[in-house]
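Name: Endoglucanase
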Amino acid sequence: HTINTWLKPMALCIHHNKEKKRSHARALTRLGAGGDGLCLGSPDYGDALAKAILFFEGQRSGRLPANQRARWRGNSALADGRPENVNLTGGYYDAGDNVKFGFPMAFTVTLLSWSAIEYRGDVAAAGQLGNLRAAIHWGADFLLRAHTSPTTLYTQVGDGNADHGCWERPEDMDTPRTLYKITGDSPGSEAAGEAAAALAAAYLVLKEDGDKAFASRLLAASKSVLELANNYRGSFQSSCPFYCSYSGFQDELLWASAWLYRATKDGKYLNFLRDNQGSSNPVNEFSWDNKQVGAQMLATQEYLKGRRELARYKTNLDSFVCALMPDSGNTQIRTTRGALLFTRDSVNMQYTTTAALVLSIYSKTLQSWGVSDGVRCSAASFSPDQIASFAASQVDYILGSNPMGMSYMVGFGGAFPRRIHHRAASIPSIKVLSRRVPCNEGFSSWLPTSDPNPNVHVGAIVGGPDENDQFGDNRGDSAHSEPATYINAAFVGACAAAMGQSQKPASPTLASY
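Structure predicted for Endoglucanase:
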């Protein structure tokens, strides 16, 4: 059985399935082993990787360092946390707004760290390991300071409704910097669990840096905040209506335990995974809300090392692959005619990039353990190379191999979004227009204009096209034109994987990291 393919503008490989020639495409693939393919070229993955990481400097909050590369940004939100005598400066603005949401920010840090762990060699070969570590450090440092006591974790800075009611640069903002936190009396196990995962994953990356004391603090905080999540169980509601958790908190507890087992090898975390695997269920997406497949991926790596008691996680991970792979017989997430995984018509790229990351890591894991038969679905089997190739096709779509012939990453290629839904990018830099631009002026003068944004937010990946592969480049269309930190964070690893696949270098394992 072979996967259907579609020859796109700028397509990377040509492959014909004679029996399904007229079916243009639910399933572009650059084809792995066993496929007849003619490669025509690849995007500049190294350039895309560098820009994807640079994006995070444009999202920084707080006092910017001397080596800041996104020079159009300035210092902002320097008093965050002051009403409660805590230092909550720094961290990342979530997307095109000026709020710091700790729950998705932690997911962003976890994804960036996972990318650095799995693809260290590829990132280093592109000359980006230092920049990636800096991006991880910037977010992890905020999470560390947000955990102010064993039973306290600050989860948000800024009033989401007030912020969204204004269109102003972060350097100018005068909306309330309201503080939200979880405690033993007001729990939020999802947010605490994700923070634990992020801190443990960041520890694994940053422990190799010179500041071993900082790394040790990350690990200690990770253990502490997981205890907060597990001992004071309750669903996270304080961020609603913006980041309400719909999947519950069990997925974050599994995810965090898997990361802490990887970081510490402490058997109590492995036992938690073993004893709670009944909470692991088949899913078809990986997102800031639902971490099931992330935990399944980490647990499957342990299963392949001989931890056979974790078999349920691998079964569920295989189901995830079958739910995404076209023509598997179990496909749940459709692909557009241009072969983009399309989960839902609102910031769809977040699901595309996370899927590409997990598929890439699973392919790499299967190859490293010599599991050549890959994943068996009801109507097809997919080799590790085929899984990796499908994941890479999603990266290629984002970088321009699509019906619009444009990149969905700002600053990459000749055609890319010019009017992204992003307050800081859409108003002239404070270094160019030094006077304050108030809330209402932003709405009247800068949000509605059809002019390109004055600041090119290099590396920003937007929400993406609609189900018909169409994109209007409309600043007011936040569902398609807004970037978000977790879109880019997953893309970093997926892009590094595609780059490694195109060059086939030896990839280091965690043990050698």
